[in-house]
Amino acid sequence: PPGLTIRNVSKRYSNAVQALTNVSLTIPPGMYGLLGPNGAGKSTLMRTLATLQEPDEGQIVLGDIDVVNQKEAVRQTLGYLPQEFGVYPKASAEELLDYFAVLKGITNRAVRREATEALLKQTNLWDKRKQKLGGYSGGMRQRFGVAVALLGNPRLLIVDEPTAGLDPAERVRFLNLLSEVGENSVVILSTHIVADVAELCTNMAIIDKGQILLEAKPLEAVAAL
Ligand code: ADP
Ligand code: ADP
What we know:
Elements: E1 4-12, E2 18-27, E3 30-35, H1 42-49, E4 57-62, E5 65-66, H2 71-75, E6 78-81, H3 93-103, H4 109-122, H5 138-150, E7 156-160, H6 168-181, E8 186-191, H7 194-200, E9 203-208, E10 211-216, H8 218-224
Parallel strand pairs: 3-8, 3-9, 6-7, 7-8
Antiparallel strand pairs: 1-2, 1-4, 4-5, 9-10
Helix pairs in contact: 3-4, 4-5, 5-6
The structure holds adenosine-5'-diphosphate (ADP) (2 copies).
C-alpha cells in the first residue's frame, strides 16, 4: 500500500493564528502517531489531510493522489474518525452503518450486508447491533466510529484524539482494534497522550506551535526527551 507525503504545508487562520508552519512528513503504511499538546496544530493538520480544509501552501500526496487538488479521489479512500463520533440516538448500529455504506457508494445490498457484518464483528459490536446508539457507552460509540471509518477499506485513516473520553478498559480495546486495522493502510493517530503513541505506533512525529519538532520511532523519541 502507498504512503503519505506532506511537503511544506502551512496554514494561517483569518484571526492571524499561524496553525501550521512548513510541515513536512513522510508517513509509511502502518500506525503513525502525531503527538503534541493542545493548540499544537494537530486538528488543523488532520482536517487538512481529510480534505475538510485547504492549506495555504504545500503539497500532500497519497500514492498517486494529490490530496489538496483531487478531493473526490481522496474521499473515496479516506476514513475519518473525529474526536467525538456524532450520534444518531434513535438509529441502531446496524441501520446507521448500512446507511453510511450507501453514502460511501456501496450500492449492492448483498455486498453491503457482508461488509457491515464483518465490520460489526471486527469492532465487537455484532451482539449489540440492534441496540439504539443512544444507549451505547462512549467506548462503544468510538468503536462504531471505527466501523464507519473503515467502510470501503480506506487507504488513509485519520483518527483525531480518539481516546479522550474513554475509560482505561475501553481505551485498551479501542487501541487494539486500531492496531489490527493499521496493517493495510496509512493510519494517523493524533493525540496528546504519549502512551497511545508509544504502545501502538511504529513511527511518530512531535508537533508544537505548528512546527514539527521531531520525526522518529517512538522508542528513539522517548530516549531523546
Ligand atoms: P490541536 O488539535 O493540536 O489542539 P488545532 O489545530 O486545533 O490544535 O489548533 C491550532 C491553533 O489554531 C490553535 O491556536 C487554535 O486556537 C487555532 N485554530 C484552530 N482552528 C481555528 C479556526 N477555525 N479559526 C481560528 N483559529 C483556529
Ligand atoms: P479541539 O481543540 O478539541 O480540536 P476544535 O477542532 O473545534 O476543537 O477547535 C480547535 C481549536 O481551535 C480550539 O481550541 C478552538 O477554541 C479553536 N477555534 C476553533 N474555531 C476557532 C475560531 N473561529 N477562532 C479561533 N479559534 C478557534
